[in-house]
Amino acid sequence: xxENTEKxxxxxxxxxxxxxxxxxxxMRLSDLENMLRDHLPxxxxxxxxxxxxxxxxxxxxxxxxxxxxxxxxARQIQLRxxxxxxxxxxxINSALAMDSILQxxxxxxxxxxxxxxGYIMLRDPATGKMEFQVxxxxxxxxxxxxxxxxxxxxxxEVVSTAQPVLTHNARNDNKYIGQESIVGYQLRSIxxxxxxxxxxxxxxxxxxxxxxxxxxxxxxxSLLEAFANQAAVALRNAQLFETARxxxxxxxxxxxxxxxxxxxxxxxxxxxxxADTVTGIxxxxxxxxxxxxAEALGMPLSALLPAFSAHFADALEHVRQNGVAAAGExxxxxxxxxxxxxxxxxxxRGQYGSVVIVIDDLTAQRDHDLLLTYLPxxxxxxxxxxxxxxxxxxxxxxxxxxxxGFSTVSEHLEPEQLMEIINKYLSVAxxxxxxQEGIVDKYLGDCVTGLFxxxxxxxxxxxxxxxxxxxxxxxxxxxxxxxxxPEQRLNFxxxxxxGIAVLGNMGSANRRExxxxxxxxxxxxLLQETAGxxxxxxxxxxxxxxxxxxxxxxxAPHKTKNDPSFAVxxxxxxxxxx
Length: 578
Known about the structure:
- By secondary structure, the protein is α+β, with helices and mostly antiparallel strands.
- It is 46% helix and 24% strand.
- The strands form three sheets. Strands 11, 12, 13, 14, 15, 16, 17 and 18 form an eight-stranded mixed sheet that branches. A five-stranded antiparallel sheet has the order 2-1-5-4-3, sandwiched between helices.
- α15 runs antiparallel to α16.
- The longest helix has 47 residues.
């Protein structure tokens, strides 16, 4: 007995942790009980005995230590759960990504309750229906919706009452007996708590155990409910953040789309605030007026477009005061060139005083339309450099054709008949000029002027074209005579000269013509005045350029207008035989 007692005294020191200390004391009490039981026969042989109930007390003490150890273990589990709760809540509330929060909530719910499986449903803000979000097994394995069969009855109860549901054995619970999911899938321990925020239920956290009864107690329910209240706030914040992020993405996409549309619109766009400061300008406008888009922002309109600002000042004020759109056309000069704009001014809704100016540049169209009145062939308009129409000096050939005998015929005809006849002759002359791609410059009474080798119809053989046009006029007049009565048969006197002239657009803002100025025009008219009916007169300069192809006889001018250099002219007789 002494040896065993000494052995008992020489046991190792007690461990530091409480549970290990309890287990050590429990083990020593067990050793002591066994030792006493072993020595009872010896004590009895010597007439000795243990105090009454000693072994019973030792056994009770051991049972008490076992109960204490179990309680301590449970308290430690609860303590770990409580310590995990604020840590996880802080982590949840620090995240904004919905997927991350759902995973964290699900993992924590399984850990806090010791559940076999966990499941989260959230209410869709758009439809109001509860939808599956995430499911977990006890091993953190992700479960699909098909793998996770739950009790819709319990889910619906939690959603409708906004209260938690706890059942220790759903199969034997009178409330759920007969439910297909519970009976068919052998659901036992079930705990479901609502995710409540600001008095509304946004979802449900559901955990269960299909194997054991009574896994969840009131403590797990309170713990999970407290956690769910925090998680619900985090989930709602994540929903709001996700909605805001989607809205921001939509706004960004819409802004980029509008910006691209704004930049790609062919019309010029300028937005102004109430002080006529430029708040927006698109690429078309920047190109149109020759400015940088970034530099234009913040400029006053009067500095960006002085002429426009002065012209439309009253219109801008009218639009702002009355809130109605206005439109008009103006001609302004930009970079020393006239531009024709159709301008619309529209108020911007919701921004008092702000307006948007829409500019359609009509310059090219007006130039094109004007050219069509000049050119015999519309295709020639595509080849024209409009920048040269402001004035250019160049060598041209001019043909001037005047109807002979018209004054005599006009004395015997009514005005309507007279206009009909003269138009027939003018048409013959114009068409002959057009066939050679000349430009009919103007009609002066019964006289037609044609231009060759202008900016609009450049040709190296412009002299030949002019002569062919003159011959074409005489030929077509003879054809016309065949269908006209003798008293209406007239002829042209034609003069042709090659010389320098200045050509370009002339006139006012409302009416413009492309024409020529200079001696070339005067000389062709002088030659025409000396030509007889059906005669083509060439200047010396023109004849020198075509003498190898055409026959002509020299003549002394009848009229010289006191020009000493005008001493000889040539009457065209025809083409040389070779």
